[in-house]
Design brief:
Layout lengths: L1 E4 L1 E4 L2 E8 L17 H30 L1 H4 L1 H10 L1 H14 L3 H17 L4 H22 L13 E5 L4 H6 L5 E6 L7 H8 L4 E3 L4 H4 L5 E5 L4 E4 L3 H22 L15 E6 L5 H6 L5 E5 L1 H5 L7 H15 L3 E5 L27 H6 L1 H15 L3 E6 L5 H20 L10 E5 L2 H5 L1 H4 L5 E4 L1 H9 L17 H17 L2 E4 L10 H6 L4 E4 L4 H9 L3 H12 L4 H15 L1 H4 L2
Parallel strand pairs: 3-4, 4-5, 5-6, 9-10, 9-16, 10-11, 11-12, 12-13, 13-14, 14-15
Antiparallel strand pairs: 1-8, 2-6, 3-7, 7-8
Helix pairs in contact: 1-3, 1-4, 1-6, 3-6, 4-5, 5-6, 13-15, 15-16, 23-24
The protein binds phosphoenolpyruvate (PEP) and magnesium ion.
Phosphoenolpyruvate (PEP) binds next to strand 10 and helix 19.
Length: 581
């Protein structure tokens, strides 16, 4: 039995067989072959190529059925690489002349091809290098007897163990086959963790050694509420977690009964609990948990879960389905926030040394106005079917907000000219997630219709702590006095200028912080829908005056540890059933 502790990234308990995601190339035999082994090795190579071709064909068929021919086509490139006569002949010749293994020769030949492609000026050829590397990984894995298994290929419900997973992989993973998720890397607010929470998958991240400790197919358990992962658990531990799992489900079921009750404090203060949404597939979960609208629709996942640019109509249909099914409740659609840890090679997002300080959020949209205008057209068209607000990510201040606003006005005018029905006014807001937007909030608040505090990035940029770096996860502290002061300043500016101030980072879904955030003056939360019942139970049982005095006490404290102690002591005393059971 091996027990590992990491960062609790998404609540719930998953128990089942481990599916280890191989991220490295399989090892190859680099010894010299006996002359009599050459023919057999050549045959083994031909068979490996044929088998890989067959498995890529199957994958292609599945994708064609699930998401259409358009997506399936990308696998034609891989089939073509597998059929490439030059690579085939060169490998067969190298096996014979150098008397080295098929894996050794094929790896060298395809690595050279990929390197040449990477140096090409043309983006298209550079992109093909990725396909070549993927094919190489497949063939080497086949030759070494290890089957590379993408999450799409899962046939039995499993616990996913990986070094790290790109958010797009998480978006494509079949929900019914994923029991839980454990990674070596990542922090609570990495986008992969956010996806897990959004999709209700128990997850623990930042485990450092999960991939080393896990064995393919062995039994494992992920306790995403407590941040614990156990491989090969003994009977006692297994039974204990099965009990916890049942309790989690029972509690969740009773809380779902809360869904039609409003979130109102004892003294009558109404708090709006909206949901964060990544993909339209999450809508039923959002409705079941009683969200008061969508406070943050992260549209980038629509772009990340595909391999080609979505058309205006494809986007319009996706947005419209969300807007229509939530109407008349509000939906805040955030424009594309790629960059940082969210890449899509077809979008041409550059490789950067400091991606979180690079071309991300509204900066990308202002540079790629063509994409931005298409997205705005789709959003504005969908806005005719409900209550839509548009929000821009990574706004630094008035300049980028104004530029975006001008483009919205132009797109609106063009749509009206074409006779397309759109609302008279769609409110425009800014994410407050950079220190710059906090310092300049008095300026921004005069021109925006609303703001939403993105604490995931605000904490990262205020404290200069990478949100996804598990080695420094301890100093990524939401309760740092600087963060509390930033939130307080934004709330005050909002009051002064009469604009709505929401909060949509992960902090909004943390039960321990709920009363403090209310006390700081926030009444508009947006969070993972699965956390709404618990936050609602807590806020309904509290009084705005006690929340305000907790916030006042915390704002007077000097260190994050002091604030944490104060908040923990308060919450344990007031809500023992939530924190001490
Ligand atoms: C945030 O930064 O808090 C936020 C909500 O945006 P994202 O997590 O998508 O960067
Ligand atoms: Mg952000």
């Amino acid at each position: 039995m091996t027990t590992l502790t990491g960062i609790a990234a998404s609540p719930g308990i998953g128990i089942g067989p481990v599916h280890l995601v191989e991220s490295h190339e399989a090892d190859v035999n680099d010894g010299v072959l006996q002359p009599e082994a050459v023919a057999g090795e050549q045959e083994r190579f031909r068979a490996a190529i044929a088998a890989c071709r067959e498995s890529v064909r199957k994958l292609r068929d599945t994708i064609a059925l699930e998401t259409g021919e358009e997506h399936a086509r990308i696998f034609d490139t891989q089939i073509a690489i597998l059929q490439d006569p030059e690579a085939m002949e060169q490998t067969l010749a190298a096996i014979a002349t150098e008397r080295r293994s098929a894996g050794y020769c094929y790896r060298r030949i395809l690595t050279a091809v990929a390197s040449r492609l990477e140096e090409a000026d043309d983006e298209y050829y550079r992109e093909r290098a990725l396909d070549v590397r993927d094919v190489k990984r497949r063939v080497l894995a086949h030759l070494s007897g290890v089957t590379p298994r993408g999450l799409r290929d899962l046939t039995v419900p499993s616990l996913i163990v990986a070094a790290d997973l790109p958010p797009s992989e998480m978006a494509l993973a079949p929900r019914d086959k994923i029991l839980g998720f454990a990674t070596d890397l990542g922090g609570r607010t990495s986008h992969t963790a956010i996806m897990a929470r959004a999709r209700g998958i128990p997850a623990v991240v930042g485990l450092k050694e999960a991939t080393e400790a896990a064995r393919q197919g062995a039994v494992g358990l992920v306790d995403g509420t407590r941040g614990v992962v156990v491989f090969d658990p003994d009977e006692e531990v297994l039974e204990d977690h099965r009990r916890k799992q049942r309790r989690f489900e029972e509690v969740d079921a009773t809380r779902a009964a809360l869904k039609d009750q409003r979130c109102v404090t004892h003294d009558g203060v109404v708090v709006r609990l909206g949901a964060n949404l990544e993909i339209p597939e999450e809508l039923p979960g959002i409705q079941d948990h009683g969200a008061d609208g969508i406070g943050l629709y992260r549209t980038e996942f629509f772009y990340l879960s595909r391999q080609t640019l979505p058309t205006e109509d494809a986007q319009y249909n996706a947005y419209r389905s969300v807007v229509e099914s939530m109407a008349p409740k509000p939906v805040v659609i955030r424009t594309l926030d790629v960059g940082g840890d969210k890449f899509a090679s077809y979008l041409g997002t550059p490789e950067e040394r400091n991606p979180f300080l690079g071309l991300r959020g509204i900066r990308f949209s202002l540079q790629r106005e063509d994409l931005f205008r298409t997205q705005l057209r789709a959003i504005l068209r969908a806005a005719a079917f409900g209550n839509v607000n548009i929000m821009f990510p990574m706004v630094l201040g008035l300049e980028d907000f104004r530029r975006a606003k001008v483009i919205v006005a132009e797109v609106e005018a063009a749509l009206r000219n074409e006779g397309v029905a759109i609302p008279d006014h769609v409110p425009l807001g800014a994410m407050v997630e950079t220190p710059s937007s906090v310092f300049a909030i008095d300026l921004l608040a005069r021109e925006v219709d609303f703001v939403s505090i993105g604490t995931n990035d605000l904490i990262q940029y205020t404290l200069a702590v990478d949100r996804g770096n598990e080695a420094i996860a301890e100093i990524y502290e939401p309760l740092h006095p600087a963060v509390l002061r930033a939130i307080h300043a934004v709330v005050n500016a909002g009051k002064q200028h009469g604009i709505r101030v929401g909060i949509c980072g992960e902090m909004a879904g943390e039960p321990l912080y709920a009363v403090l955030l209310l006390g700081l003056g926030l009444k508009d939360f947006s969070l993972s829908p699965y956390l709404i019942p618990e936050i609602k139970t807590i806020l309904r049982a509290c009084d705005s005056a006690e929340a305000a005095s907790l916030a006042e006490e915390c704002l007077a404290l000097g260190t994050p540890a002091d604030v944490r102690e104060q908040v923990t002591e308060f919450m344990h005393r007031r809500f023992p059933e939530h924190f001490l059971a």
